């Protein structure tokens, strides 16, 4: 039974294959909110928002930061085309902290020429990174 | 006939040129290997992106999206990828020629260049270079492709440009590279996918096709630019490798030719000296 609920997971970044393997469940953040996907899901294409992806295979749980992209869900395969993805060990906490402060400052300054969307996005990315490293 | 010394000087000068071309060939061979592995790595992402986009387009038929309709402006934004260094055979001039072949009016073209060579060539010919990302081509990174993509998409959505083209050098294999011009925006559905619709699995889109497509196309453009950068880098190095290989073997030919001439000249001078000595001895005797 245990073997039957596994499906293929591929997370592809523009410059490399980030993750390739089997999982019993994958959770990530989408434009419609958090989703968790099991085997035999209805075929679906989702927009991925910055967040933490959790890949569960059997007893093992793996977490990584995912910064936007698309997910293509098929019955026995999930493919995520990510703009960027990182394991917790690849994250530079100091840099993320800095980026967070910078983005917050820009957002609170409320200058005319502020690119709100961009600042919000970089804030979100920094928060995801920090979140992930704090859990460890 | 040139003197022995002249020939010798010429030969040694060609020999040192040959050493340079040999070294350059080796360097570009190594670089080519690197660029090739990278190109293979990013192929996956690119293909999946391409397939998803076109299968959505094939399935949904008419979707109202600014990315699918030609903009009102006659201007054409062209992303042109060449290299920063020369001595790569026809690599750079072929890319520039490709643009001329497209038959756009010079006033309508807005260039976004990567690579100094083609940029210099075209700006000298009176083309407008809107922005230049030449530093990015030495070390292709997704970050730079995304920044360039952001800028051209901005130009497209704001209406400053009505169409978007990408010109780069496609890498077939080490001996053949081909400059290609590709229309990026508006996106045109592919025939091949339209005929295949019935075979595709039924797919749901969340929240809906239009939103997914609207978010996906900018990423698609960026990944295309990134893919083109990487392929161009591979093409550049293999073009240089070929050019340097030719130069090395030409130098070899010249050296051989000069060696024969040199030996002949040496022989001549010895014969002449002997004749002179004999003649002198005879005159005395």
Give a description of the structure:
The complex is a heterodimer of chains A (136) and B (285). Chain A is of the alpha+beta class and 136 residues long. Chain A has two domains: 85 residues, Sandwich (ATP Synthase, domain 1); 44 residues, Single alpha-helices involved in coiled-coils or other helix-helix interfaces, CATH 1.20.5. Chain A is built from two helices and ten strands, in the order ββββββββββαα. In chain A, helix 1 packs antiparallel against helix 2. Chain A is elongated. The relative contact order of chain A is 0.17. In chain B, strand 2, helix 3 and strand 3 form a beta-alpha-beta unit. The two termini of chain B are 33 Å apart. Chain B has two domains: 62 residues, ATP synthase, gamma subunit, helix hairpin domain (Helix Hairpins, Orthogonal Bundle), CATH 1.10.287; 199 residues, Pyruvate Kinase, Chain: A, domain 1, CATH 3.40.1380.10. Chain B is elongated and about 115 Å long. In chain B, 61% of the residues lie in helices and 14% in strands. Chain B has a five-stranded mixed sheet with strand order 3-2-1-4-5, sandwiched between helices. Chain B has 285 residues and is α/β, with parallel strands linked by helices. The longest helix of chain B is centred in the last third of the chain and has 76 residues. Chain B has six helices and six strands; from the N terminus they run αβαβαβαββαβα.
CATH fold-level topology of the largest domain in chain A? ATP Synthase, domain 1
Main β sheet profile of chain B: 5 strands, mixed
How many strand segments of chain B? 6
Number of helices of chain A: 2
**Overall residue-averaged pLDDT value of chain B:** 85
**How far apart are the termini of chain A?**
31 Å
What would you call the structural class of chain A? Answer: alpha+beta
Please give the number of β-strands of chain A: 10
The biggest sheet of chain A amounts to:
5 strands, mixed
What is the count of structural domains of chain B?
Answer: 2
Q: Which outline of chain B best applies?
A: elongated
Second CATH tier, the architecture of the largest domain in chain B: 3-Layer(aba) Sandwich
CATH superfamily caption of the largest domain in chain B = ATP synthase, F1 complex, gamma subunit
């Amino acid at each position: 039974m245990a073997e039957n609920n596994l499906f293929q997971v591929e997370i592809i970044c523009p410059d490399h294959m980030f993750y390739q393997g089997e999982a019993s469940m994958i959770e990530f953040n989408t434009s419609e909110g958090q989703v968790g996907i099991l085997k035999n899901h209805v075929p679906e294409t989702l927009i991925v928002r910055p967040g933490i992806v959790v890949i569960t295979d059997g007893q093992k749980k793996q977490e990584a930061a995912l910064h936007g992209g698309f997910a293509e869900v098929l019955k026995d395969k999930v493919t995520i085309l990510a703009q960027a993805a990182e394991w917790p060990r690849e994250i530079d906490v100091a840099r993320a902290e800095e980026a967070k402060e910078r983005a917050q400052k820009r957002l609170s300054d409320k200058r005319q020429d502020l690119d709100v969307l961009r600042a919000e996005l970089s804030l979100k990315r920094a928060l995801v990174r920090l979140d992930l490293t704090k859990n460890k | 006939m040139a003197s022995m010394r002249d020939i010798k000087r010429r030969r040694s000068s060609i020999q040192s040129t040959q050493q340079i071309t040999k070294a350059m060939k080796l360097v570009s061979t190594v670089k080519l290997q690197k660029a090739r592995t990278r190109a293979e790595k990013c192929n996956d992402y690119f293909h999946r992106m391409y397939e998803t986009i076109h299968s959505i387009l094939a399935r949904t038929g008419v979707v109202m999206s600014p990315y699918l309709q030609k903009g009102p402006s006659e201007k054409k934004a062209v992303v042109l990828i060449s290299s920063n260094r020369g001595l790569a055979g026809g690599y750079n001039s072929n890319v520039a020629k490709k643009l001329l072949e497209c038959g756009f009016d010079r006033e309508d073209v807005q260039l976004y260049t990567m690579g100094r060579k083609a940029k210099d060539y075209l700006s000298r010919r009176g083309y407008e270079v809107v922005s230049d990302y030449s530093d990015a081509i030495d070390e292709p990174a997704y970050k730079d492709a995304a920044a360039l993509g952001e800028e051209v998409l901005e130009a497209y959505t704001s209406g400053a440009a009505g169409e978007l083209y990408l010109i780069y050098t496609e890498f077939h294999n080490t001996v053949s590279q081909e400059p290609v011009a590709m229309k990026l925006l508006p996106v045109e559905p592919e025939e091949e996918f339209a005929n295949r619709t019935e075979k595709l699995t039924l797919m749901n889109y969340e929240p809906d096709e239009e939103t997914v497509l609207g978010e996906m196309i900018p990423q698609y453009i960026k990944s295309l630019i990134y893919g083109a950068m990487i392929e161009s880098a591979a093409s550049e190095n293999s073009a240089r490798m070929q050019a340097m290989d030719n130069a090395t073997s030409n130098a070899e030919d010249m050296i051989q030719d000069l060696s024969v001439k040199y030996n002949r000249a040496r022989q001549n001078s010895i014969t002449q000296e002997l004749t002179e000595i004999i003649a002198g001895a005879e005159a005395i005797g």
